[in-house]
Amino acid sequence: MNGSSCADDGFSASRLFSQGVSYTYDDVIMLPGYISFPADAVDLSTRLSRRVPLSIPCVASPMDTVSESAMAVAMASLGGVAIIHNNTTPEVQSILVRAAKSRALPFVSNTPFYSPRDVVADFGEHEYAIVTESGTATSSLVGVVAASDWSGLSNKTNTPVLEYMRHAPKSASSTFKFNQVATFLESEGLDFAPLVSGEGEIIDLVTTKDVERIRSYPKLGNPSVGSDGKFLVGAAIGTREEDKERLKSLVKEGINAVVVDSSQGNSTYQIDLIKYIKLNYPQIDAIGGNVVTIAQAQNLIEAGCDGLRVGMGSGSICTTQEVCAVGRGQATAVYKVASYAKDHDVPVIADGGISNSGHIVKALALGASTVMMGSFLAGSHEAPGTYEYKDGRRVKKYRGMGSLEAMTKGSDARYLGDTLKLKVAQGVVGAVADKGSVLRFVPYTMQAVKQGFQDLGATSIPSVHQLLRSDELRLEVRTGAAQVEGGIHGLVSYEKKFF
Ligand SMILES: NC(=O)C1=CN([C@@H]2O[C@H](COP(=O)(O)OP(=O)(O)OC[C@H]3O[C@@H](n4cnc5c(N)ncnc54)[C@H](O)[C@@H]3O)[C@@H](O)[C@H]2O)C=CC1
Ligand SMILES: O=c1[nH]c(=O)c2[nH+]cn([C@@H]3O[C@H](COP(=O)(O)O)[C@@H](O)[C@H]3O)c2[nH]1
Ligand SMILES: [K+]
User: Would you tell me the crossing angle of helices 243-252 and 268-280 to the nearest 10 degrees?
Assistant: First the structure.
C-alpha cells in the first residue's frame, strides 16, 4: 500500500487506551473533525443516570465544602444537579434536601428568623431578618427587620424585635419563578418580600438586590425539574447499616437520585446496599462507585445500579494513589468503564480532576455522560463556607472527604469508633480562589464546551459518543513538550481571562 489514509492519522481511542499506559486528560489531545454547524447548535443535554435527565452535563460533588442547599438550587437552575453530601447527621442532610426542594429560585439567602420577643445581639452580615410568631419558619409571619433598623437602635441589648420591626410585609409565593418574583417586587414597589409556601411555611426572603444580581448573569436555560415539579436534587449515603435509615428520610424529602459514596465501590457492602435500594426504592436511581475498571463496573451493574461514578485518586484533594497505590489515570478510567457501561445503558459520571472546560470536553468525548466537580465549583458564591483572605487573595476552604479534618468532623460515626482504629487520611484540606457565582461561570464553561464539540464535529453528547465508538474520533498522546506548547508559554507576563 502506498501513501497515507485518514485511518493512519492519529489513534482511535480503542487503540490508544489498550497499550498498558494510564493516561489522564492532559496526556491526550483530540484531533479536530469537520464543522458544519454553529457552536450554539450544540446540545449538551444528557443523563445523570438511567432515568434522570439533565440539560447540562454538570454535577456538583457530594462534599461538605461543595454541595449543600444553595449549590443544589443553583445547579438545578442551570440544568445540572448537585449531590448533597452526607458528612452530617441524617436530620441535617434531610433539612438540606428539603431546603433545596422547597425553592424555585436559584438562591438561598440564609436569612435568620426571630420571634417578636427576641433581642438581636448581632445582625452579622445579614441584610434582613424575618419575624414570625415563634421565631421559626413554620409559624405565621409577623414582620421583617432590616439591618439598618437594628443598627440605628440606641439600646440594642434591651430592645425586642417587636419595637422596631416592619409589620405585616407583603409576601410572594415560594413557587414563583424568577420572572414572576421580579415582576411582583416591581409592581408592588417593594425592596424585599418573604417567599411563603402553600402550607404557610416561610421559605426565604428575596430582595431587589438578589433580582438584580441574578439578572446580571447569563440567561438561565432549562432547569432540572423532576416529575414533582421541584428542582432535581441528589444525595449521598455511605454503606453502613445505619445508612438505610438515612436513605429513608432522604427519600421522604423527595431526592431524585442517591449516590452510594465510596472510594472503592466494588465491595460486598456496596453491592448489598444497591440491591437493597433497588428492591425498596425502585423509583429512585441508584448511582454506584467509585470505579475505574470494567470488573468493578460489572459487579455494580449486575447489582442493579443506574449510574456509575468513575475516578479513583484523580481529584484535586485526593491522595489515594499516593497512600494506597491504587487508582487509574482518569482518561483511561473513563474510557474503559464507559465502553463497558454503554452496553448496559448505564451513564457514566467522570468524577474528579476537572480543572478547565477542555477536561470536560475530553471526559464527554471519552464516553462520560456527565462530569462531577469539586474544586471547580468550591470557590463559588454557592459553595458552603465564607470567604477568607490568604496572601491577599479571596479564597474559600475546600477539603477532601477523606481528609482527617472531614473524617473527624462532629457527629459522623462513619469513622469514629470504626473497626479501622488507626485513621489514615486519603485527602487534604486546602483553599480555592473566589470564582464568583456558578450562575455566571458555569454558562461560560458550557459555551466553551460547545466550541470544543464544534471543533470535533459533534452536535451533542450522543453524537460525540458515536464519533468515539466508530473510531472517527482521533487522539494522540502529548509529550511533555507538546503539553508545554499547548499551554501559555514564552511570555514575560500575561493576564489570563476566561470570559
Ligand atoms: N474518588 C476517590 O478517589 C476517593 C474518594 N474519597 C472520598 O472520601 C470519602 C471516604 O471514602 P472511603 O474511605 O472509601 O469510604 P467508605 O465508607 O467506602 O470506606 C471506609 C471504610 O469502611 C469500610 N466499610 C464500608 N462499609 C462497611 C460496612 N457496612 N461494614 C464494615 N466496613 C465497611 C470500607 O471497606 C473502608 O475500609 C468518600 O466521600 C469518598 O468519595 C476518598 C478517597 C478516594
Ligand atoms: O482521594 C480522595 N480523597 C478525599 O479525601 C476525597 N474527597 C473527595 N474525593 C474525590 O474527589 C472528587 C473531586 O475532585 P476535584 O476536586 O478534582 O473535582 C470527589 O468527587 C471525590 O470523588 C476524594 N478523593
Ligand atoms: K490526586
Answer: 30
